[in-house]
UniProtKB/TrEMBL annotation:
One of its GO terms (molecular function) is DNA-binding transcription factor activity. This is DeoR family transcriptional regulator. Keywords: Transcription, Transcription regulation. The keyword Transcription regulation applies. Residues 3-59 form the HTH deoR-type domain. The keyword Repressor does not apply. PROSITE patterns: HTH_DEOR_2. It comes from Histidinibacterium lentulum.
Length: 588
């Protein structure tokens, strides 16, 4: 695939998903090597078309929050407002950064509902996925043929809730079908395009497929399209019912036979009711299981009606599903701010939830703030890096020569030094800062009495810093006491690492020039490896991180002879020299 086409394809995937990991891109673009994908991401990031993350990419904020159609609620950046929220609903969010977000929610004591999937610290809000899958599988089993069935299951195995749906369906189908049941599983990743691709391959490889299971609406629609393209008669069953128009297809003489409907508008409204109750002093339940129903052509009219071609849930049915109306809003709820962080706010499920949540919040005199979860994650990671930087600044003594590399943590360290220079200039008397980062230079340019030296080198626009062979020329005549490096990965096996080769080479030159090297890494980087090694474990001295780092990861680093300092527990004293430092001093 030629480069322009690859770039367009990557951006198209990002516009659909919001953010994507390299492994996910590799699955979607199997004809492109990971090395090429990394290079493409770097080029697109430099052009400003996307943002690089540890192991993937995401759209710039403006693009991510831009959507078609009318806005039902203002999409605001929770990155600057997490501290102002009173309660939150968080859909499934994976990755180490998500743990940081959940820790911040717990730290603030916010009432927290985990929508659709279990999450640490949150009360589950959503249907009983396994029970719904079993009920749908039993429905399919009653219609199964005695001669046997071949079932194509379009799944999304990365998520626990969708795994439960699929396992429930297949188990109940096998229990109730009168004949043999052969199951073919494919990973549609929850998106129409990917599901269609794998479904077409499955139909071509197994022309005897007679039943299709879709783990959500898009998966089922892809299965229907693949069956039509290959001329294969099938019966289709789906869990989700995210869009009423999809449920309305049950009224047609088509392949869709039954839907396990989860009623996203009911889920959204009940979630706001629970949070409002918690703010008024009522305890949250251990688990908030929302209703589901198996809809068929015969039962469709009991739940939905069509008006001028538009399907909608009956008001009487909505009341029956939700229970009695909520009480009048209490004083503690008026003016409250509920947060909601869906990965894909334009998806049918979340769009319907947002409508219902907005209306319910208005009933209470409250407001709903919606933002993709990476906003809140980025805010928490930035807070942790600032905390680490504040602890690192306490290590700097008068008269020292200090190296600050590029990156957010070192930029925060520069900001802390500027504050310290203004409040206690004597504590930084005679301190010289050497840096290749323009952000560090900008923060320190008026910070007296600091002396700031910018290295030579080639300007790397994407990272606002200087890199290249000439960067090391300065250190032929200078020696630094300590180097602080922002790193993307730290492990006891690989050492400290960077996402960029030239940044890694710059970091290694800084290490060679300093008597002591301290890596600044939030807990999402601990135990992880980026693409390019900066230094082996034997070549640096200390890691400063936050208290989210796993004890096992911290212990492995210590066992490798690396000092580990937790920012919240950091003291003003520099750790005592280890045996490695003594050896390195002798070798210098």
């Amino acid at each position: 695939m030629i480069k322009p086409k690859r770039h367009r394809r990557i951006l198209s995937i990002l516009r659909a998903e919001g953010s994507v990991d390299l492994s996910e891109l590799a699955r979607m673009l199997p004809e492109v090597s990971r090395v090429t994908l990394r290079r493409d991401i770097a080029e697109l990031a430099e052009a400003g078309a996307l943002k690089r993350t540890h192991g993937g990419a995401l759209l710039p904020d403006a693009d991510l929050l831009r959507g078609d159609g009318p806005r039902l609620v203002t999409f605001e950046g929770i990155s600057s407002e997490l501290e102002d929220l009173d309660a939150i609903i968080l859909p499934p969010v994976s990755g180490r950064g998500a743990a940081a977000l959940r820790r911040q929610i717990a730290r603030r004591g916010l009432p927290f509902l985990a929508e659709s999937a279990e999450q640490e610290g949150g009360v589950y809000l959503g249907p009983d996925n396994r029970a719904a899958g079993r009920a749908l599988g039993a429905e399919a089993g009653r219609e199964a043929r005695a001669a046997g069935e071949t079932v194509l299951m379009i799944c999304h195995p990365e998520l626990a809730n969708t795994r439960d749906r699929a396992e429930g369906f297949s188990g109940a189908l096998r229990d109730t079908a009168p004949g043999r049941v052969e199951v073919i599983r494919v990973n549609g990743q929850g998106t129409y395009r990917q599901a269609l691709r794998v479904a077409l391959d499955a139909f071509k490889s197994h022309p005897d497929i007679s039943i299709v299971f879709g783990v959500n609406d898009h998966s089922a629609l892809a299965g229907i399209e693949a069956a039509e393209r290959t001329g294969t008669p099938v019966r289709v069953y789906a869990t989700g019912g995210e869009n009423p128009s999809f449920i309305g297809r049950l009224a047609e003489d088509g392949p869709l036979r039954a839907v396990a409907a989860f009623f996203p508008d009911v889920v959204g409204a009940l979630g706001v009711d629970l949070l409002a109750g918690a703010l008024s002093g009522a305890p949250l339940p251990e688990r908030a299981t929302t209703p589901h129903a198996i809809l068929t052509r015969e039962t469709l009219a009991d739940h939905y009606r069509e008006t001028d071609g538009v399907w909608s849930l009956l008001d009487t049915r909505r009341v029956a599903l939700m229970g009695p109306p909520p009480p009048p809003p209490g004083r503690r709820v008026r003016g409250a701010r509920f947060g909601f962080m869906p990965h894909f706010p334009a998806h049918d499920w979340y769009r319907t939830m947002i409508q219902a949540m907005t209306a319910r919040a208005e009933h209470y005199g409250a407001s709903l703030k919606v933002s993709p979860p990476h906003k809140g994650i980025a805010a928490e990671i930035s807070r942790l890096r600032a905390e680490i930087a504040a602890a690192a600044a306490g290590r700097i003594r008068p008269g020292q020569t200090v190296i600050l590399g590029e990156g957010e943590a070192t930029a925060c360290l520069a900001a802390e030094l500027r504050r310290r220079a203004a409040e206690a200039p004597d504590s930084l008397k005679g301190v010289t800062v050497i840096t290749n980062a323009l952000d560090v230079l900008h923060r320190l340019e008026t910070a007296q009495p600091l002396k700031v030296i910018l290295t030579s080198g080639e300007y790397q626009k994407a990272d606002r810093c200087l890199v290249g062979p000439s960067l090391g020329a300065l250190f032929e005549r200078m020696r630094a006491d300590i180097a602080f490096l922002s790193v993307a990965g730290v492990s006891s096996e690989f050492g400290i690492s960077s996402l960029d080769e030239r940044l890694a080479l710059a970091g290694s030159r800084f290490i060679d020039a300093a008597r002591r090297t301290v890596a600044l890494a939030d807990h999402t980087a601990i135990g992880a490896d980026a693409n390019h090694r900066i230094a082996r474990p034997s070549d640096f001295h200390e890691v400063m991180t936050d208290d989210g780092a796993l004890p096992a990861d911290r212990q492995r680093l210590r066992a490798a002879g690396i000092d580990v300092t937790i920012a919240g527990d950091a003291t003003d004293e520099v750790p005592q020299e280890t045996g490695r430092e003594e050896r390195m001093a002798r070798d210098a």
